[in-house]
Amino acid sequence: MTIKRFGSLGGVGTGGQHLPFSSAVQAGGWLMVSGQTPMTDGEVVEGGIIEQSRLAIQNCLDIMQQAGYGLDTVVHVTVILTDARYFQSFNKVFKEVFGAHPPARICAVASLVVDCKVEVDVTCYKAP
């Protein structure tokens, strides 16, 4: 099995720090996208949970597209919210994006290392 890494030179985190992990890793038809926060060019984009959720998910979708995967290939999503009160609002965005192809999902509440409201990762599969 071949393993292919995307963004392995590392992204840029808050304050311009180098992130020492791949944006995604592909192995045998699977694609695992690292957790994405609502960041653009290494800076958190301010806004409410709706705006931050859309951007975190879009960041995942952009990485997936670079690797040749689409929405219909998403099999699992992990969501971390910083406040349980964000759950319904996040679900609204989630349904907008994944409505036609709902994946399995886990959603948890925890503190994040980055000062934002949400982090999202995805696992995709397509036959090799």
Automatic annotation (TrEMBL):
Domain of life assignment: Bacteria
Entries under Gene3D superfamilies matching the protein: RutC-like
Stored Pfam families: Ribonuc_L-PSP
GO molecular function: deaminase activity
GO (cellular component) term, any one: cytosol
Coiled coil: none
Cited PANTHER family: 2-IMINOBUTANOATE/2-IMINOPROPANOATE DEAMINASE RIDA, PROTEIN HMF1-RELATED
Membership in a protein family: Belongs to the RutC family.
Protein name: Reactive intermediate/imine deaminase
Organism of derivation: Paraglaciecola hydrolytica
Lineage: Bacteria, Pseudomonadati, Pseudomonadota, Gammaproteobacteria, Alteromonadales
